[in-house]
Batch of 2 targets.
Target 1
Amino acid sequence: MKVKSKAHFSTQAIHAGYDAKLNHGSLIPPIHISSTYAFDSVEQGGAAFQGENDRFIYARLGTPSQQMLEQRFAQLEQAEAALVCASGMGAITATMWSMVKPGDEVIADLSLYGCTYSFLEHGLKSFGIKVTYLNLTDSKSLADHISPKTKLVYSETPSNPNMRLIDIESLSQITQNYDCKLMIDNTYCTPYLQNPLALGADLVVHSATKYLGGHGDLIAGFVAGSQEDIDHIRMYGLKDMTGAVISGFDVSLLLRGLKTLHVRMDRHCENAQKVAEFLDQSEHVKHTFYPGLDNFPQQALAKKQMHNSGGMIAFELHASRDQAARFVNNLKMILCAVSLGDAETLIQHPASMTHSTYTEEELLQHLISPTLLRLSVGLEHIDDIIADIKQAFQSVFSDEDLAVSGLAISA
Ligand code: 4LM
């Protein structure tokens, strides 16, 4: 079946870019693992290198498997083109290296995934690129700061780990007046819940390791945008600067994951809403950050730019850092692990784990609370997820602990 781009999301996720009839009727696309591709002649090979024909050349420049996945993903992200990479960091670094040169400025939001922050701080900066962190939840801060030297504005939304939202449309109204790209990390939402390009962003990146793959069995990334930008990132950032090329086997796993993205995301959202409501009402929880809660400070923006609230929750307990760690250690079904978007519910302590690339001082400057916990709500039965959290509360918040912390509730 040939799928038109106006087909529904779920139909595209299953069919776009592939025609079984052209592949011996094979329902599942073949996996291409060849590293190199033979030509009929030197002349044909030379023309391929000049971009004068569409022959495959070498797997670092693309394979039939990658091409098919990229076409499918471009449709899902409502992009002209997409590029698949060996990891989310591969996609982010291949894109950034392609877009900036010494003397340029990158403006990034304050709160970023730890390795992205580390790349900006220890990678780009050491190559003579100025990096400025602004609180981009306030788009005026961008308007006040942006200059002709600013070539890239970068943000996650929601941000990892603290669930701050960035108004993509407002930022794009500012960046479009400059020779500057707006690049959004859409990992937390996936194209099922948020479409940054339709809101005015120029480039969207993903860790496909998370919800897109969805089963914790692959590492991959995507960047999507205009054909011109993606061609440039492929031929420069990916081919020459990072070489972060995905294997054919992982392409196949990622195609399998994408087929069920819409079904999984619906359940992630449903479960996360219930877990967030439970946490929000618990006497042991100081703050719950989840866009689907009425007390979420940016709920209006969430409703404007997200189609649902997602599967990620951040929360802080009425507890010391040690007690928070004991709470995590006392969970029985929920696993203490980094990564997110898997079928399994995962919890972690960003300050010690995913965001340990920030110093203690930087965590505070970048609005990442050292006692924050991050929960990736999985696909288990909701009652089992909540029961596990309840029993861990009980084992940590014994009467004795509450008395010591001064939080004992009088009967
Ligand atoms: C984690 N995250 O948070 P690869 N962008 C965002 C991310 O959360 C991540 C990446 C990019 C976590 C990994 C351990 C918003 C990763 C980087 O890990 O390179 O696919 O993606 O737990």
Note: The chain has 16 helices and twelve strands.
Target 2
Amino acid sequence: MKDVFILAIESSCDETSIAIVKNGNEVVGLSTNTQIPVHEKFGGVVPELASRMHTENILYVLDDLLEKTGFNIANINAVAVTCGPGLTGSLLIGIEAAKVISYLFNKPLIAVNHIIGHIYANQLTKALSFPTLALIVSGGHTNLVCMKDNYNFEILGSTLDDAIGEAFDKVARVLGLKYPGGPNVEALAKMGNPTYKLPIPMNNQSLDFSFSGLKSGIVNLVHNEEQRNKEINKADLACSFQNIAVDEVIRKLELAIKKTNIKNLIVAGGVSANGYLRTKIEELALKYSVNLGIPDLKYCTDNAAMIGAAAYYLYLKQDFSDLDLQPRPNKSLN
Ligand code: KG4
Ligand code: ZN
């Protein structure tokens, strides 16, 4: 079969990212402009600023990609874009850019679900084997999924309240750490010990998650200690939180492995960059002789290469979109 080159665009949140991906698993080139230094000043993503910066930057990112790869855009087979979930205004900029490229170069347009993109980031590191369990740990989602084949998702468990990344971000804010919270909580946790007693998430046999009790426990603890003028050991608190949150994910993952007896496991989403989580998952995979895939660190957080990887299977199915494609800010996995 002839090689397939997909130009992929990701702009769902605060990264303007464009990639060219060959056959769904080889990154020909990737260019990303991150808006973190701007949003950092506000303690989180400001949607209006995000979409304005996507507008300002997207052509520069495209130019940079084409210049450094030397790739002729007329030689792509299709253009793919994240259609949701994400911020409406941010998604819109990527979608409009993709439509223009699709129209001008007469190439099919492929709409990709952002979460499915995170799953297929694995394909850039190691080929997927089916059936596989997929653990999704991101800013907006925490799911345990069974994939029997490409684009076949059965949700085994979900968060009943906050996503794990959301909990990391909230704890970061309470501890006075900068946005994005997750990596900063991890860095601080490395300097501490798990000394704080915090609410343990629900200890049942379901595969659902809950992080709001743990999150509120930390908010209340910090508030109470402040009222009593007592010093908080922030590194110990960050470490205590990270251990409890990650250990809970590991416990549910172990339960899923035992329940399903599936011997392949992949991990997806921004929190999969967390070193403590990566180590714990590696230990678990070893214990149950599970074939483990975790994306390279550079493909864990938002990037367009993962969108190009996920788009490849839609390309093979000729699952194309029309030029009236609209953002789907609340799009779910299925
Ligand atoms: O997967 P992602 O892009 O979010 C969604 O698509 O929803 O990941 C962003 C999330 C944020 O909550 C961020 O704080 C978290 O991933 N994150 C981390 C780390 N790196 C990113 N959380 C914990 N440890 C990290 N090293
Ligand atoms: Zn993401």
Note: The radius of gyration is 20 Å.
